[in-house]
Amino acid sequence: MAQITHKECPLCGSTKMQPQFSCTDRFATGEEFAIYRCEECSFTFTQNIPDEKEIGRYYESPTYISHSDTDKGFINRCYHIVRDIMLRRKAELVNSLVDKSKTRLLDYGAGTGYFARAMQKQDWEVTAIEKSPQARQYSKEKFGFEMYPVEALDKYEKGYFDVVTMWHVMEHIQELNDFWDKLHHILDDEGIAVIALPNSASYDAQYYRENWAAYDVPRHLWHFSPTTIMKFGRKHGFILERQYTMPFDGFYISMLSERYKGSSLAALRGAWNGLIGWLSSWSRKSASSSIIYIFRKAK
pTM value? Predict the structure, then answer.
């Protein structure tokens, strides 16, 4: 397998990086991948990852819900129920953050197209980009909604989009620093980037460690915390303006994590730990399993 081995930290450039533990690919291959942490800036990432030509086969699983939209099993049915609730909340959030004269939205990493289609129904001029041909085809068949491959991003002129949304996508992007530069280029000077990410500093990440489902190796290449995502934004000309917790994510991730541990009554145990994490995030946002970050361009 062709691999990418990071010789220096993608965030700060330090060569002082140490392995933390190994995680198992639970969806496709059962392979082990090491999680590394930079000693200088604390950025965490998956080491020895498949390169761009190899990574596609790690998404080829009927249980990978972001691309297949499967509803098999109790936990996946819960995911669908929560997704319907969160679609409304995501739309409300975006609409509350921008001037009504702003109309152009890019949903990057659009999955099976639910959010993009929802915003289109609210009269946004929506462009959706998705890497997976399977997911693009699903969207076309289900909604009649055309999505584009990642190469389409390069055709948009400077400042073309008023809003760019990325719902659990940035952790998948191989050329991370290059993408941040592209994001700065295509976003209007008054626009916003809405970036939702798993939080590697969360209560559940600390509790489950190598069994934390949101490590999702090797599909998740990078493991952000509020501190490291803020540093990435600053590095590329952005200011982190606001943060919002995603309380439902902690329940879903904890249920999956309990399953990975081989626990009996995984759904109940996961729900209990999800509740603890949710309560913890009331007083400390950094305990939340997932966080939505709102970035604007620095003036």
Answer: 0.92
